[in-house]
Amino acid sequence: MKLDSSLLQKVQNLIKQNIKLPSSPSINGGLSDDSEWVNRNLLIVLTLVIVSIVVIFTTIYYPYKSEISALEKKYKKIAVMRREIAQINGTLDVEDVLLQAKRREYEKITRIFHSESELEELYESISKLAIRYGLKVAGFSRKKPEAIYEVIIQKSKKKKKRKNRNRKVTHYKMKVNINMSGNYLSYMKFRNGLAELRKAVNTEEEIININNEDGGGNVKIHVVLSTYRLP
Predict the structure, then answer these.
(1) 193 CB neighbour count, 10 Å cutoff
(2) Has domain 116-150+168-229 been given CATH number 3.30.70.60?
């Protein structure tokens, strides 16, 4: 940035014209001349200061005033955006926690309950599991689905319980009878395999009979497995 050369030249000429060193002042008029000289120089210095301020404002501040204002506005916007981002991040953290909780709840429900197609896959998986561990499946039959109704708490004891036909079915219990035979250790592996299935399978009933004829640790098993299906 270049200062106005003509303005500086005028200031220099003004200094040369007005600043004059006192030459051997007399005893009587020396004091008044010195005072006048000091006042004149103070006035010149004050003028220089004012001119410098004007030059700085006219050559530095005002040409860039709009840019400075724009930068200030951008800085304010950045500060606002930072606060908004912090709020959004906080909201996202809360939403992520809620999402994880809902996901765990969903996985828990889907592990317990099956759809119709998933039931067919489950029965097939149980059969394959028995064959994998060398068990012979002699019988595989499904029982009639057992409806599980919603639980309604009666506020008044005088009111009669609602009949099942008036209540909503929440889910069905699906049972299957399996008769198999084989080595007892193989059956224990089969049980462990059931526990590792993606879908939950419950053991409702289990009868194990030892086959004393061969003495090889073979057993006959009757087991009732159950799971749940949504309506």
Answers:
(1) 17
(2) yes
